[in-house]
Amino acid sequence: MAEAAPPVEQPPAHPTRRWIWPGGLSARLLLLTTLFVSIAALFVLPLALATFEEQWLLDRVRSAELASLATEVAPDGKVTRQLSSQLLEGAGVVSVAIQTEGMRRLVLAAPSSLKNPYLVDLREQNPGSWIAAPFQTLFGGKDRMVRVVSEPRLIKDSEFIDIVVPDDTLRTELIGYLWRLIGVTVFAAILVGGLVYLSLNAFLVRPMQRITGAIERFRADPEDPGARVQPSGRRDEIGRAEAELDRMQAELRAALASRARLAALGQAVAKINHDLRNMLTSAQIASDRLAAIGDPKVAQALPRLERALDRAVTLATNVLAYGRTSEAAPDLKTVSLRTALEAAAEDAALEKGGVELVIDAPEDAALLADPDQLHRVLMNLMRNARQAMTGADRAAPGRITVTMTREPEATVLRIADNGPGLPPRALANLFQPFAGSARHGGTGLGLAISRELAQNHGGDLALAGTGPEGTVFELRLPAPLEVAARAKPKPKPKPGARRSPASARAAE
Length: 508
Fold this sequence. Notes:
It is built from 13 helices and twelve strands. It is of the alpha+beta class.
């Protein structure tokens, strides 16, 4: 009885990893966008504070300059103490001085003594001191004075105007502006983050959630129609991902259907395998009895019958292996190319189909391969070619030409026919089981098995070309030295273990 296929091992289930909030992609996008906008605002904040302080000081300078014009229209260029206090209070300064022709003149001054102020020269301010000035105002301490020097605009023939301003007033204005700036920044961060979140959620997150849901449903039940992702037709990366996922799901469903059919085939063959092997054993025993008759005609036909029975027994024994494992390792032997081609042509019934075999190789050409596996490959190719040429309308007689070439690392057999070529529907899945058949009612197993056998030798079987002029297959086998290096020696039988030819062939 055929052995049951081993159960398919399922990959271990990975536990679902739980993330601390935010766990979803949407929430992370919102958080990161708000964070990045806030970080950008931190870089802009010093520049905004420096600009505000500079403009505030310039406003005090212009106000002081206007206040100083009152002394020019006053009698003797002097104003009363009361008027001076009113002018200084209106300008928001403590003192005003103007330098003309190298002489500094105090125009307006408060009656109280002034503390030593720190200097801010608006004429020559480098970027470093300009950016650092607001922080010096905020963290420099209380009850300080700031001396501001600037170029005048209203007073002609003056070199500069010099004012003194209370630092506390500037600090209060600067703190108020800082809080307003922080509020605007937070509002902008939330607004921009929300807009970016909604945009990315609509164009990226929701499509990715839909793709992820389709993948999860497909993994749970590949036959579920709802697991198929519906391509949206987008031309960006999301659209490409949807199209590729849809194509992958279709290919996987086809592969699963093919696997199910292979499993059904294996079960069917398993039921008949035991009876078929018994029948073939009986036929082999009968062939041994026919060999003892001594009839010349029987002796001529008997080798072909024995070869067919041997291959039938081997095929019946190993047919289940196709559904669950790969082909057996090749038993490498030196095979005459011409003998192998003629035997394959005989079993492929080329003579009955009126197809001529042309061998373009030396008479002593040989290969190092498994004779049975090589025979199966050549017979499948020749039989397919004969069937294609038999059902086609052609003027020239059918012909299969086999050409052998040797390369440094491979031996190449080109099997070419003059048939009508392969139909387009067979090219897409040429080497796929149950999908690559070029004729109605075919299973598509022949080329799939032949390619597996070629790859089992370390080579390959490929379609070199097809068209109205015919079809060419290329069978590539490693060079004899490389094949011999890859082959594993078979264990020798134990001494004394002798078996009859019939029982030996039946047990294979």
